[in-house]
Each structure stands twice: as C-alpha cells, then as structure tokens.
Fold these 2 entries.
Entry 1:
Amino acid sequence: MKKLRIGVVGLQRGRVHCVNAKKSEYTELVAVCDIDRAKADRYAAEYGVKAYYDHRELCADPDIDAVIMATPIDVHADTVVDALNAGKHVLSEVIVATSLDDIRRIGKAIRESGKTYMMAENYCYIRPLLIVEELIRRGMFGEIYYAESDYLKDFQEYHPLFPNIGGWRQKTYFGRRGHPYITHTIGPLLHIMDEKITKVSCMAAGRAFDMPADSTCTLMLETEKKHLIRLRASFVSPRPDNVTYYSFQGTEGCYQAPQGPTDFHKVYIKGICKPGEWKNVYEFKDYLPDEWKKYWNVEDYAADALDNDTYELYDSGALMMLDKFADCVLNGKPVPVNFEDSANWTAAGLLSADSVNLGSIPVEVPEF
Ligand SMILES: NC(=O)c1ccc[n+]([C@@H]2O[C@H](COP(=O)([O-])OP(=O)(O)OC[C@H]3O[C@@H](n4cnc5c(N)ncnc54)[C@H](O)[C@@H]3O)[C@@H](O)[C@H]2O)c1
C-alpha cells in the first residue's frame, strides 16, 4: 500500500504525532524539524529519520508529501502557509491561527495550492464521543437543539511556573479575554452537530488574578440553525481539571459527560431508558462504528465505566485522527475537520474577546 510520507515540525506536541506516524499503517515518518537543534537531532536519531532546523527546509524535501505542523499557535499562520506554498498537505495543530487575517491567509494558500488542510482536533475522537456521535447520526437523540462544554484547568495548582509559564500558553490562556483556545471545547460539539457558529457572545467573571484574562468566562453561541451552545473556560480556577465535559440535548434524548471522578458517561433516550433514569454510554457500545474498533477494545474499556478526564481518554483518538487524514489524502476523500470548520470554530473563540470587551454584545462570526 502506498504510504503518506510525513514530516513533523515542532517537537513537543509533535512527538505524539511522530510516534503515531511510525505506528500508522497509512504513514511513514521521514523527517522531523525544530528550531532547537539539539531537540531535532535527538528525536531524528531516536526515530531514525532526517533532522531539519528550519521548517522551510523540511517543506522543500521532495521525499515528504505532508507536514504535521505542531509549532506554537502564534507561528501557525507563517509555517502552515509556507508548507502549503511548497506543495505539501498539512495536518495542523489547534487553533488555526491567532487573528482573522491570518486565518484568511491560510484559506488563500489552501485554495491556491489545491492541497489538503485538516486541523488536528483530537478531542473529536474521544472514545465515548464516538458512540454518542453514532447515536446522534442515527437520529436516536432527535434534533439536537442545545449543547454545552467546559474547558477547566487549574494552572495555579498544577504548573510550577505559574503565572510565568511563558510562550504561547501565557499569551493564549492568560494574555487575553474570552476563550481563544476554543477548539477542544467547541470542536467535538460542532463536528457532531455538523453546523457552523453564526454569533458569539461572552460574559466574564472579572479578574480575581493579576492578568489580562478573566478568572472564568462563559460563551453563548448561536448556530446557523438557531441552535444554542454554552461553553465555559477557565485556566486558573482552583478545582480538579475537567477539559472533556460535553453535553448534547435533542428532542428525543441527551448525553452528559462526567463532571468528576465519581460520575459516568450518561445517556437518556426516550422509549429506551426508563423515565428519569440515565444509562451508561457503554451500554450502547455496539454502536461504535467498525472502522474505530481496531483502535480499542470496547469490552475492556466498558469495564472501566467510570473513566473520566484523563490524558489517555482525551488523546486516545490521535492515531485514528492521523489515519483518517492520511486515508483522505491518499484516496481523495474529504477530511473530517476541514478548513471551513476549523476557521469557524477558531474565529468564534477569537471574537469572544471582542464580545466581552464590548460589554458582552453578540458578535457575528464571518464565513471563511
Ligand atoms: N491537541 C492537543 O491535545 C495538544 C496538546 C498540546 C499542544 N497542542 C498544540 O500543539 C502546538 C504546539 O504546542 P506545544 O505544547 O508543543 O508548544 P511548545 O511551545 O511547548 O513547543 C513547541 C516546540 O516547537 C518548536 N518551535 C517553535 N517555533 C518553531 C518553528 N518556527 N519551527 C520549528 N519548530 C519550532 C519549539 O522549539 C518547541 O520544541 C500548539 O498548536 C498547541 O495548541 C495540542
């Protein structure tokens, strides 16, 4: 089978992709790149591939078909545009970019190059969500008219360098208002609802900490079908982390993710569940699409029915995401999270800062 030949740029998060590119039956890891030369050399030796120290040199390598761009958020626009202009397909880490102009710049490069762009939103492939997605696609929840999600992290407690963690995280989490790091929160909701955001409004709880970001904020979003989404973000609230809380409400049923370690993935479907009683999502494990069954053993996983917010849970889909990207590029299929979706999700997050700065008024999200 022809394999997609991969180069990975940025060797922090990028190392997850290197390991998966070596594991995947669809891909071959050819080269890695980091501006930190020692890092590039170390991981090139570990993976047995070429080392580059400048993404433009990696993008000029004719042995590479596609680049996984795991650079810091604020350089995505430059590095992704360079890769597309060099004729490479791109799987880009989240978010698309940090300004609407940069998102448009990437859109232009995609159109002009004719290459594939996919955003690496791994939270769309969280295991219980794959079952929920199938239940929703089969119409078992009826029409989804409301959804919600939270991204709650306590950097004060868990990051020894707080508040000076530096880099893109400092700027994105603590350096501006609203919820710019939005795609893990909104991506899985809209991916399943298959809708776009048209309006965002954001309210914030003020600044209890000495930083430009608010202590916490809540976004209300309207979709093109006039459905409603609520998101909450906080990077400083003292509490156990929960970055994978999702809920969908339809005319026939509801899903609610765990809110903590003693909670479970809950499903209610009219006519299937007793009135007023949740079922565990794993009682619906047979609905998991066959294409995903090779990645995890449903029986084993269902035994641990109290699974909640763990790294293993949210990143469990990174390999299937890469396989999907490679399969789509190699076989000319549409990617599951395309530029228009990623741009819509990212823009809603960036514009949430405008909304809160303007007194929480609804702000329109443009098309890309
Ligand atoms: N999907 C997820 O779960 C997840 C988790 C973590 C990070 N991320 C994403 O991955 C990306 C990178 O995050 P990170 O945590 O690895 O950041 P980081 O700042 O910890 O590391 C970035 C790495 O890229 C290198 N680098 C910086 N500029 C470069 C350039 N121009 N060319 C080549 N290398 C460069 C740095 O030397 C460093 O090794 C971000 O988009 C972030 O949102 C996603």
Entry 2:
Amino acid sequence: MTETIIKLENLTKKFGNFTAVNSVNLEVRRGETIGLVGPNGAGKTTVIKMIAKILRPNSGKILIRTNHSDLQDLRNVSSTISQIGFLIDIPNFYNMTAYQLLKYFGKIQRYPKDKLDNRIDELLAFFKLSEWKFERVRNFSKGMTQKLGIIQAILHDPDIIILDEPQTGLDPLARIEIRKYLRELQSLGKTIFIASHMLYEISEICDKIALINYGKIIGFDTVENLALTLKTSELNCLLLEPLDAEKILPLLNRIDERLSPFLDQNLDPKISKIPILYNPEHQGLKLYFNGKNESKGEILKILVNEFESDFTVISFTQPKTSQLERVYSQMVEDSTPEGPIKLKGVDIKNEK
Ligand SMILES: Nc1ncnc2c1ncn2[C@@H]1O[C@H](COP(=O)(O)OP(=O)(O)OP(=O)(O)O)[C@@H](O)[C@H]1O
Ligand SMILES: [Mg+2]
C-alpha cells in the first residue's frame, strides 16, 4: 500500500456554537483521487479551507507529507504552497489580464522563471483560453474564470491538488476536458482531493468517495464497496430489438420467476411491483438484483441462454453513477446531526 499523504485526525471546526466539521478522520494515499461529496453546508469547503490554512481547526490535526519528510503536523509545515495546489471558492481575480495573473501566481509559487511562460501557454491552450491571454480577467465569463482558477491551482505542478467544486459553471465540453486533464494528472501519480456535487464526475474520476453530512464522514470507500450497503443494485440490459408490446408483461413475469433467487424481492413498490422494468425508450431491461457479483454472472447466463428466442442482449452494465446516487441518497437521508447514524450494517470508520 502506498504512503499516506494527507491525514485528518478528529478534525473539528466550530463557528460559535455551530459545529461545521465534526471530528473528521480521513486518509489520502499517494496517487489516490478522493472525492468529498455531501449536501450544501455539509462542511466540504470548511475541511478544504483548514487544509489550506485559511481556517484554523478548533481541535484535531491535519498531517501532511511534503516531498522530503515524514507525515508532519500542518501547523509545523512552513510553506505548503509549492507542494499543494488549491482551488477554493470562486476565484476573485482583480483587474489583471490572465497572463499577468498567472505570471504573478507562478512567481509566488516559485515556479522556475525560465519555464513559466511556456507552462502558462501550455495550460491556456489546453483549457482553450489562449486568445484570452491578454484580456482582463474581470471580463471573463464564469466558466472561463473557473478554468483560470484550475490553471492557477496546477500551474506550479504540485504533487497534491485540492479542488473545491472545480466543475462549477463549466459547460459540458469544459467538464469533459477537466476530467481528461485530471486523468492525465492521475497518470502522473498526483494525489487529488476534490469536493463536488457532481456525482457523475466523481464516480468517473475518483478512486474513493468520502461522504460527508452534518460535518461528519458517513462513508469512505470505493463506489463499489459503498454500493454493497445498498439492499439492491441496478443492472441495465440493452436489447437488440424492441419488445413486442403485448408480450412484455408475461415475459417480464417469466424472467422474474427464473431469476428470482438473484433479484430483490422486497423492492420498494413505488419503483416497481416486480424487480424488472422494461424501458421502451432505451430498449432495455432494468433489473434490481442483490448486488452480488456471482449473481450478475448467473443473471447474464440465464438471460442469454434461456431467453434467446425472446430477445438478444447487446449490453449488460451496472451503472456506477446511479449506484452512487442511490448510496448518496440512502446515506444522507439516514444520517442525523447527533448520530448514531442509522445505517444498516455500514462500517462508518474509514480506517482499514
Ligand atoms: N465563516 C463562517 N462563519 C459561520 N458559519 C460558517 C462559516 N463558513 C461556513 N459556515 C457554515 O459551516 C457549514 C459548512 O459550510 P461549508 O461551506 O463547509 O459547506 P459545503 O459542504 O462546502 O457546502 P456547499 O456544498 O454549499 O459548498 C455551513 O452550515 C455554513 O453555513
Ligand atoms: Mg462548499
């Protein structure tokens, strides 16, 4: 296992009597991408601001491993700026041009002078901002400002990148580009910590998800492992040809009967009476099953072999985003400010 890069130990932040971050424990290892996810006001930005030393914790510790050291208390690390890149809140970039601003950041972060101009051009080009290089930042659109904020965070090529809502205000193409860029950073072995509401982005990029609510971590694991706490998981099965309208109901009942040991027989009737739905628009079946990998294999075998004369399966997937959405809603709905957290059989400790 790789070494721990950031460790939060019982980290707590109060604003007056209000506890915004409540005894958070979290470990981020080298090369990992961690997503911090939770409702508005859950404490995500507050956690990040403490790591950035913008806010001081009331109690608990932040430990950090800088290039040449062991894990050490952030309070004793004099200059974290060159090893960590931050994007926090919507950046407020005064009256400078993009170039002036990035040049300024590059200087204070001590990026090698002779390489800075190249680096700026490269990043502006990647984020499609080259033609805006000499424009004043105050004339930038929200998404352009956000992109500049991301460039600022990674400009000095830090090993640890901490981003608060990087996709806010970005158009779909820009979000795709950011994802691509984050993947590139991952392949370079960077450690990335992202707070976001965008479950799709998070489930696509992150190795592990930390779910936070009322300032407490209520789950920390891979999407797959978090999904094990769900009573049911979904499977999407696309078919080559649409099903004949009259045959749908009897067919679904036959499938239900045959697959019943693997399907969720206690499905919320609000979703469906039987654990299978047919979606004519997508020409696909949605199956609610017990989430076990073995079951997936059996289900696929049966659908392909025993229903060959009814339909042809062209794809068979377990949607990650919808899994994360369901984990998210279940966990957030089941957690309370006081605790104990009413999760069924979930180990809420993140130490492994
Ligand atoms: N400076 C402050 N003074 C008082 N309360 C604060 C302060 N900063 C944050 N809070 C409160 O702490 C809680 C956590 O806020 P935080 O900004 O960390 O949430 P968040 O998870 O980032 O939410 P969002 O998803 O909306 O960005 C909120 O209830 C917020 O009102
Ligand atoms: Mg926030």
